[in-house]
Amino acid sequence: MKKILIFLIFFLPGSGFSQEWSPVGAEWYYDVSYAFSGDIDYHRVFCDSIVEISGTACKRINIDFLSCNAFYHEKIYTFEQNDAVMIYEPELDTFQTLYNFSAGAGDGWELLIVDENNITDTVLISVDSVDLVMINEMPLKRLFVTYTYNYFDFQYENTGMVIQKLGDLTFLANIDNKFYGGCDVQFIHSLRCYQDTEIGFYSTGHRDSCTYEFDWISTDNLMKDESVRLFPNPFTDELKIDADTSPIFYNIFDINGQMIRSGTENVLNLENLKPGLYIIQVFLDSKVYTSRIMKSSP
Prior knowledge:
The protein has no helices and 21 strands. The protein is an all-beta fold.
């Protein structure tokens, strides 16, 4: 293992480079959903220092949250190389590409991760489409990606929306834990707010505040917005997403907070879901819209 040196730095407002990845002081706020109870909390992720690894100055980002779904749950060390965000894998003592904002549709790259059993697994990140989005009058590249997990004994896919400076809107380093499906504790997901000295404060609109908390037995306070319409609701086999703009992508969670489906289609065939209550997130124009949906018996 390489020696890691930590340097705390101080900077003046307005310093740094345009669209810098994770300036010191950058903060992300995410949803935390708890299995079984249905309660919702929040967690703050932040960059606090510059760290030198093998002669490379890296941003130290404090995740420090053990959740069911996220592979990266401690501190991560990243740096920007051209238009790519590189992440350090300590078990392999190497830097790898986490996000590549110079990639176009059809491009892709591999990420190797080492689990607690010292097994090296492969995640293929492929770019489906690319565009620009304006956030606080700053044009940022946006990638719609598919993650293909080639784990030791199984393979599966999910999708994501990745924006410069923000990372994946589902989670900053949105690589699933391979034991995600068998976990029943807390899940971290859905960016609420981001801020740094360059872009200022930005809210995705997913929650009323960065520190919103929700008690399942209290009044329903999920966002309602006419920009996204879901029908019919309740549904039996098919749910339609009608949005003011496109493209979109969505995540569906069960009431325990476990993500059970994601995709980009506007007409969802959900005949295989069991009747009951679910939560859907629709990502649209760098905003996140959340609603309850109900599947009724045929």
